[in-house]
Amino acid sequence: MSRFLAFFLFLISLRAQEVPGLFIVEMEDGAKPGARATAASRQAFRSALEQRFEVLESVEHTLDAFIVRGAADGGGALRSAVGQTGRVFKVYEVKLDLDAALDLHRVREAWSLVGGEPEAGKGIKIAIIDTGIDWEHPGFRQTDLKAPNGFPRFSPQELSQGTSGKVIVARSYEQLVGSGESSAADVVGHGTAVAMAAGGVRNRAPFGEIAGVAPGAWLGAYKVFAANGASNTAALLKAIDDAVADGMDILNLSLGQAYMVRPELDPVGRAVERAAAAGVLVVKSAGNGGPDPWTGSSPAPASNLIAVGASFNSRTFTAGIALGEAGTLPGVASDTVAAAPVAGPLTDVGAIAESGLACGALPAGSLQGRVALIERGICDFETKLTGARRAGAIAGVVFSDDRAPGGMMTGSAGLPAIMVSRENGLRLKELLSSAPDLGVEVRFAGVPSPVEARQIAPFSSRGPNGLRTVFPDVLAAGVEIYTATQKGNAAGEIYSESGYTTVNGTSLSTPLVAGAAAVLKAKRPGMSPAQYKSLLTNSAAPLGADVPVQGAGAGLLDLSAAMGATIAADPVSIDYGFYSGVLDRDFVLTNTGVDAETFSIVVEPRIGGRGPLLDKQTITLQPFESVTIRARFEAQGLEPGVYQGVLRVIPSRGGPEARIAYSYAERTRRPARITPLISPAATPRAGSTATYLFVITESTGAPVLEPAPVVEPVTPGLTVRSVDSVDFEAPFTWLVQVVLAPEPGLNRFRVKVGELEREFTVRGR
């Protein structure tokens, strides 16, 4: 079963998400750009803390900070103790929220450029900061791969059994989430699925062989989630710090907050920035908050962090009918299916009755032990399949008319069935004409069927994000990803008895890009994280001209193109925002090739017909020489709407070009959407307070703070407790609290902004 996967970190000051008594204390010197504390000052600061509080962990490679258990007074005593020498942050809960993809992203072509699949990502270490890795899964058994010098690494000591020549790190942070356990095993399934997509080795699954993008890479398991799905930002911060200290090359963060937090209030975001500054490439999921705009997440996208959105895969798994050497025909399962495929000879109902519609009684025993082929039309599906079952059929295949195949409500028929297209139904009839006892196998899941991949998945979060770059940076497949999972805990969020499953979400898009980064870095060492980011992002395959860049970024990951790209841009995209005037943005182009090269830069408007003016249209660069380009957008007098496109940087010698997305929004000044970013995760008690976080946006995606929303009860007994702007913490957002009616049942309230309104419901128990 497909499940939407995401990890949402709730950092805003909402009491429901706080971890009582746990705090992150950052030394003030460490909070200043470029300043780091000395060993002596760190020890003195720690000693002062330990006189009154319990210091659980230290963080020293990405921040100068400590994880402290303090008095349960909201941190007041701790803030008083550190005074001007430190900053105190509350700790918040972290909530649990590949087959065809390799061809979609031209991974196999990239493998041919590095000497084959086993060499892809060789020598690169990928940190999977997640729920752990099932190291015994066949996707991580690589007996000929040896751990590098200084590895394996693990903490605590008993986690040593969770390492191998492939999984070279096993660390658990369960002590920081209060689980009372310390295990490297993945009992949730998410981390195993992510690790397989990034760097799993070739192994045979029920639906065929699969492999990750970088089979030659080493993997590190940094387990920040306990078995019950509990975690917090202290555990996440410590894991990032350890991964940098361990010398990991790439951090995979298939997680994110449910909204954007101001960077100065986010210690995790600052740790990510410093990891990138230390040469570590960070790849992060965009989030599953789409399709509305302004649904990006923190840690905030940075110059060296790749934010990954989700596209459709190039195939989906459906029901179907297998014909042996003649192949498999896709179909749509009815609401009655069998747990396992049903095999038997196929019989056309039209050959045993007056018509193939099966709307009347069929001869007794005429379908005994057979699969019935039935034509759609005249009578309902329940009638057709009931008649087939009474005639002895073991399954039904209904072929459609001029309508596309769809799901069937079979009522009391009790016969497992699928529907195929008319074209494929007529093909089956033709095959039966030459082979009356044609044997078939009706499968109710797992049959691959091609779909159009070049579109944004509806759940993928969209920009803008207010940070001068479009959001996300790039797309990778995040729908129907067939991957590994754990099979030891049936209660886990992702579980399969076979050890393989199909999953959805930007959580799975992200490791495809992390694996691609490993392949690229192994082949082309020595560049900065920003340059690797650009090669992966700006070489992406474009989507349709009308697809918004605030949601698609530069396009669809194309690893083969990234391997041959010779131009890097910093930043990789330009967001001019939504303030009219003459807007200047600078970007830097660097020749990453081995030869001098001349590049032409072409402005290609795609939506709105307006693009920036460049101060240079042609440049010549020596290897690793850089030049700054000024891109001026003249926004005066534009009609309200969106203006988007790309700047194409074209090498004169041919080869992959770079496409730098740009976006500008001329405001309409009219609210168009009310989007919930946080709502009650479970059914709250009747009479309790339910907390929501909203963002209000125009049709252009620009956020709105005025007029303020008005919240009105609809259900008698429900009251509105508060409506507050929390723009000071989460830009352009509103915090709404309602007190549910005292009796269990459905509660409704209405949010109104000018003429716009939206109704919300929550059930009290």
Question: What does the model show?
Answer:
With 765 residues, the protein is α/β, with parallel strands linked by helices. It has five domains: 7-94, Alpha-Beta Plaits, CATH 3.30.70; 98-314 and 454-529, 3-Layer(aba) Sandwich (Rossmann fold); 317-447, Glucose Oxidase, domain 1 (3-Layer(bba) Sandwich); 565-666, Sandwich (Immunoglobulin-like); 671-764, Immunoglobulins (Immunoglobulin-like). It is built from 14 helices and 42 strands. The strands form nine sheets. Strands 7-8-11-6-13-15-16-24 form an eight-stranded parallel sheet, with helices on both faces. Strands 1, 2, 3, 4, 5, 12 and 14 form a seven-stranded mixed sheet that branches. The longest helix is centred in the last third of the chain and has 18 residues, at 506-523. The radius of gyration is 28 Å and the shape is globular. The model is unreliable at 1-16 (pLDDT under 50).
